[in-house]
Design goal:
Layout lengths: L10 H36 L4 H8 L1 H6 L2 H11 L3 H20 L4 H15 L2 H16 L3 H23 L7 H16 L14 H8 L3 H15 L2 H13 L4 H21 L7 H19 L5 H8 L2 H19 L5 H30 L3 H19 L14
C-alpha cells in the first residue's frame, strides 16, 4: 500500500475514486441514521416500552461514545487501519440491530442495543477521521463530501415515513436493520488511507490534545450544542405523532431540517468567517430554536423552525471540523475525533436521560433545558475565540 505522503500518478482519478466511495459510505451511514433517529423511538413505543425506558434506551448511543468509542478509535489508530475498523463496526452494527429487532422486553432491548451501539457509535468519528485524512491528501473540502450523508438521511427518513403509514410500527426495526446491511456492504469499497510512519508519534500527540485548552474548548462547545438536540432526537417524533401528524408529515419535518443542513454543507467552502465564530452563530441559533419549539408551535411555524437545523447542527459541524483540522495532527485525528465524540456522548447521554424525566412531566417544556445548554455552548466558544484564532499543533505541545 502506498504511503499517504506519495502523490498518485493520476491524482484526479484517485481523488474522484476516493470521494465517490466515501460519499457512498457516508450515504449508507447517515441513511441508517435517517431511518433510526426519527422512528426508533416510535418502534420502542409500539412494542410497549414506557417513556422512562425510552429515555434510558435512547441514551445508550451517547453513553457508548465515552466508554466503548475511545477504545475503538484508539485501537484503530494503533493498528493503523481506519478502514478495517469501519468494516468490522459496520458488519457488527448490522448484526446487532437484527438482534435488537427480535427483542420486545425493555431490559432485553437495552442490553442488545448497548452491545450494538458499542460497535455503531465509533463509525461516525472513524469516518470523519478517514474523511479528513483524505481531504488533506487529495485537496478536497469536507462539507461537499459530508452532504451526501445528509442527503441519504433525507431519503431514509422519507422512506421510513412512508412505510410507517403502510406497515405496523412494530416492524420498523427491520427497515432500520436493512439499511445497516447496505452500510456493511458499502464499507468494503473504502480505500486504505493510513500513515504507518507517523503512527509512532500518536500516543504523545493524543495525550497532548487534552492538555490543549483550545482543543478542550472546541469539544466542550460542540458537545453542548449537539447535546442540546437530545430531546429533539428522542421525543420530537413522539410529540408530533401525539399532535396528530402522520408518518409522512413527521418525516417531512425531519427532512426540512436536513435539507437546510445539506445547503450549509454545500456552501461551506465559501464561508469566510473564522470557524469559532461559525460555532457561536450556530449555538445562538440553537438556543432560539429550542425556545420556539417549546411553545409547541403550529405546523407552519414548526416547518420554518426546522430549517434552523442547517445552522444548529450543520454549521456546528462545519465549524468544529474546521477547528479540529487546524489543531489536531493527522496521525492522531481518529483519537481527536474520539475525544470529541466521547465528550459529546457524556453531555448527550445526561441530556437524554434527563429529558425522559422532564418530558414525562412537562412535555415540550423540556426544550427550555436544551436552550440553556446551547447558550452555554455559545458562551464557551465566545470566551475561547481568541485562543482559537491561530492554528496550533497540539502534538508538539507548542
Amino acid at each position: 500500500m502506498a504511503s499517504e505522503s506519495q502523490i498518485p500518478i493520476d491524482a484526479q482519478a484517485a481523488s474522484k475514486r476516493f470521494a465517490t466511495r466515501l460519499a457512498l459510505f457516508y450515504g449508507t451511514l447517515f441513511g441508517l441514521v435517517g431511518t433510526h433517529l426519527p422512528f426508533f423511538p416510535v418502534w420502542l413505543k409500539a412494542v410497549g416500552i414506557e417513556p422512562g425506558w425510552i429515555g434510558i434506551i435512547t441514551a445508550v448511543p451517547a453513553v457508548t461514545r465515552f466508554t466503548a468509542l475511545p477504545f475503538v478509535t484508539g485501537l484503530a489508530e494503533r493498528r493503523q487501519s481506519l478502514r478495517g475498523a469501519l468494516i468490522v463496526s459496520a458488519f457488527g452494527c448490522a448484526i446487532g440491530l437484527s438482534i435488537v429487532g427480535s427483542q420486545h422486553q425493555a431490559l432485553a432491548v437495552f442490553v442488545a442495543y448497548a452491545v450494538t451501539c458499542a460497535m455503531w457509535t465509533p463509525m461516525t468519528p472513524l469516518t470523519d477521521a478517514y474523511a479528513l485524512r483524505g481531504v488533506a491528501r487529495y485537496g478536497l473540502n469536507y462539507g461537499p463530501l459530508r452532504l451526501w450523508g445528509s442527503a441519504a438521511f433525507v431519503v431514509g427518513a422519507l422512506a421510513c415515513g412512508l412505510l410507517v403509514d403502510v406497515i405496523a410500527a412494530k416492524h420498523l426495526i427491520w427497515v432500520i436493520a436493512s439499511v445497516a446491511v447496505l452500510g456493511a456492504l458499502a464499507s468494503l469499497a473504502l480505500q486504505p488511507l493510513d500513515k504507518p510512519k507517523a503512527a509512532a508519534a500518536a500516543p504523545h500527540g493524543a495525550s497532548a490534545l487534552l492538555r490543549d485548552p483550545g482543543f478542550v474548548a472546541v469539544i466542550v462547545t460542540s458537545a453542548l450544542v449537539q447535546g442540546s438536540h437530545a430531546a429533539y432526537y428522542t421525543f420530537a417524533s413522539i410529540a408530533w405523532q401525539q399532535a396528530g401528524y402522520g408518518g409522512l408529515t413527521i418525516a417531512g419535518l425531519w427532512v426540512l431540517g436536513v435539507l437546510a443542513e445539506i445547503v450549509v454543507f454545500a456552501l461551506s467552502p465559501r464561508f469566510t468567517l473564522p470557524s469559532s465564530v461559525l460555532v457561536v452563530i450556530a449555538a445562538l441559533c440553537a438556543a432560539a430554536r429550542w425556545v420556539i419549539t417549546a411553545q409547541a408551535p403550529p405546523i407552519a411555524v414548526l416547518a420554518v423552525v426546522q430549517l434552523a437545523h442547517g445552522l444548529t447542527f450543520g454549521l456546528t459541524m462545519v465549524g468544529t471540523m474546521g477547528l479540529l483540522a487546524q489543531r489536531v495532527p493527522g496521525h492522531v485525528m481518529a483519537r481527536g475525533q474520539g475525544y470529541l465524540a466521547a465528550c459529546t456522548g457524556i453531555v448527550t447521554s445526561c441530556a437524554s436521560i434527563a429529558s425522559g424525566a422532564v418530558y414525562a412531566r412537562y412535555g415540550e417544556g423540556v426544550y427550555y433545558m436544551m436552550a440553556a445548554m446551547a447558550a452555554a455552548g455559545a458562551l464557551t466558544m465566545w470566551l475561547a475565540r481568541h485562543r482559537l484564532a491561530y492554528p496550533h499543533n497540539a502534538a508538539s505541545g507548542g
